[in-house]
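STRUCTURE:
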């Protein structure tokens, strides 16, 4: 019997669906490490090429120069952020890109791949796969049926414009809500799976 492994994305969005504000701000996010805490154990991270350089730089700085990372954040590092950085440093990262090369990543655990290799990953043995982002990759994996779950930390703020989570979606996509969990400070964690609503649900 073949058991496929789950590809799960966990992202943080505003109430009106943006991951960044009009000036690329995200000051409503308490910590980027919080999304990982929504997932089961994972053994692979998948990212889009557009977000990887900044992602890699930040988490490398957390490990190599915590003081500089704290200055970037404007506060002391949380222990969960240090734990995330340690896990990221030792966990394989697949970066979906047609322009980056291995020398662009700076991490020995990083491999540049295409969408087909991410799709093939589902059939390989292992734990769940964390699809970190960005929005173009998440939308592509959702549209092609590769993404199994989308978990969102929804923040109680509306920004009106910026970088939308679904800004690149080309056609209507039905999602099934499977869990909703209130969190502190007015946040809500929503879990969706790709699917279609029945006629009775419309």
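SEQUENCE:
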């Amino acid at each position: 019997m073949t058991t496929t492994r789950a590809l799960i994305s966990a992202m943080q969005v505003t109430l009106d669906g943006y991951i960044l504000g009009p000036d690329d701000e995200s000051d409503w996010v308490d910590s980027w490490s919080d999304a990982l805490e929504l997932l089961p154990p994972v053994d692979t991270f998948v990212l889009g090429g557009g977000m990887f350089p900044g992602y890699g730089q930040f988490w490398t700085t957390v490990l190599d120069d915590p003081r500089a990372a704290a200055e970037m954040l404007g506060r002391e590092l949380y222990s969960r952020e240090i734990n995330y950085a340690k896990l990221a440093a030792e966990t394989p990262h697949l970066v979906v890109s047609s322009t980056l090369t291995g020398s662009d990543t700076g991490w020995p655990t990083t491999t540049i791949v295409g969408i087909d290799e991410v799709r093939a990953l589902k059939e390989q043995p292992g734990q769940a796969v964390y699809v970190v982002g960005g929005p173009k990759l998440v939308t592509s994996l959702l549209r092609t049926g590769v993404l199994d779950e989308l978990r969102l930390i929804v923040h109680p703020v509306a920004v009106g414009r910026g970088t939308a989570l679904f800004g690149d979606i080309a056609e209507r996509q039905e999602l099934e809500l499977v869990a909703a969990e209130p969190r502190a400070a007015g946040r809500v964690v929503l879990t969706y799976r790709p699917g279609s609503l029945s006629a009775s649900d419309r």
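REMARK: The first strand starts at residue 7 and ends at 14.
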